[in-house]
Amino acid sequence: MIEKLKNIVDKAKADIGKAHTREELLQVQQRYLGRKGELPILLHKLSSLPERERPEAGQKANEAKQTLLRAIEEQHALVGEKNEKPAEEIDVTWPGDEMPRGHLHPITQFLRRVKGIFYSMGFEILDGPEVELQKYNFDLLNIPKDHPARDVWDTFFVRGSKEDLVLRTHTSPVQVRAMEKRKPPVRIIVPGRVFRHEATDASHEAEFYQCEGLVVDKGIRVTDLIGTLKMFLQETFEKKVRIRVRPEFYPFVEPGIDIDMSCLLCGGKGCPACKQSGWMEMVGSGMVHPKVLKNMGVDPQVYSGFAFGLGIDRLMMLYYGVDDVRLSYSGDLRFLEQF
Ligand code: PHE
């Protein structure tokens, strides 16, 4: 048996050496190693050997197979080099194809702009968790359990969480979180993603970006709030804008103020984008409620502050002239490649 194996290997090696094309090599491979090749046929006879001799013969047969495979591989490389022309001539001086290049998402680009503007006004930029304790999202912001105001924020609750977790419905929870580690004076912004259980349409998404702002110091007044936001809007849009303020209710501020900006598209005359009113709602804001100041560990007798929540998506849409929020989150390259 072992003698026969040796014969096969010698014969096969000689044939491999004589193969001058890959085609021929393949035929040799078939002849010796293919399903009905000489080596497999011999292997088949292993079972008829006396049991004592089987292991050694089996091992030798395996070695023979490996030897042949290696020989074939080496010859394959050789005949390839010598006899086969490359499929096409390659002109190495030809300029390469341009690779498609990605870029930042328009929201990211716009957010960087927003951060830059606030940074230049002396604001610190903070982060907070997207999965939030109800304590921060509601309770400490003066929105007690069972208060009807909770309904305003259509909340995603995290099922089965012992700690009463929600997906934060606004960036306001970071107001209190930030003050746990700071003392006034503070000036912070918190850009980030928020979530609401809402039906989506051209101006509503269940997931969007806000930028929270908080200023706490001695003697902070409503005019500081209005001035700061007007300044921010003018810097953002690089033109003089008119704003108007309206009273609005948010449990964590008193008074609560919504700030509208004269419509950038029609200049205030009225158009479909501003629903013919000439104004666009940009910011929810107000003076921090004394109860919330207390929750922040700040004495409302000594300090006052203002807070605001900017709708980043809406600002971004106005800035670039996009008319449907859903485009932002569509991942559609026809949209994204325009930025
Ligand atoms: N958190 C509010 C909202 O999402 C916006 C807001 C922030 C209002 C800060 C007042 C002060 O609607």
TrEMBL record:
Pfam families per record: Phe_tRNA-synt_N, tRNA-synt_2d
EC number: 6.1.1.20
Gene3D superfamilies: Bira Bifunctional Protein, Domain 2
Localization, UniProt: Cytoplasm
PROSITE patterns in UniProt: AA_TRNA_LIGASE_II
Any one biological process term the GO annotation gives: phenylalanyl-tRNA aminoacylation
Root EC class: ligase
Any one annotated GO CC term: cytoplasm
Keyword Aminoacyl-tRNA synthetase applies: yes
Keyword line: Aminoacyl-tRNA synthetase, ATP-binding, Cytoplasm, Ligase, Magnesium, Metal-binding, Nucleotide-binding, Protein biosynthesis
Alphabetized GO MF terms: ATP binding; magnesium ion binding; phenylalanine-tRNA ligase activity; tRNA binding
UniProt similarity note: Belongs to the class-II aminoacyl-tRNA synthetase family. Phe-tRNA synthetase alpha subunit type 1 subfamily.
Assembly and oligomerization: Tetramer of two alpha and two beta subunits.
Protein name: Phenylalanine--tRNA ligase alpha subunit
UniProt source species: Candidatus Kerfeldbacteria bacterium RIFCSPLOWO2_01_FULL_48_11
Gene behind the chain: pheS
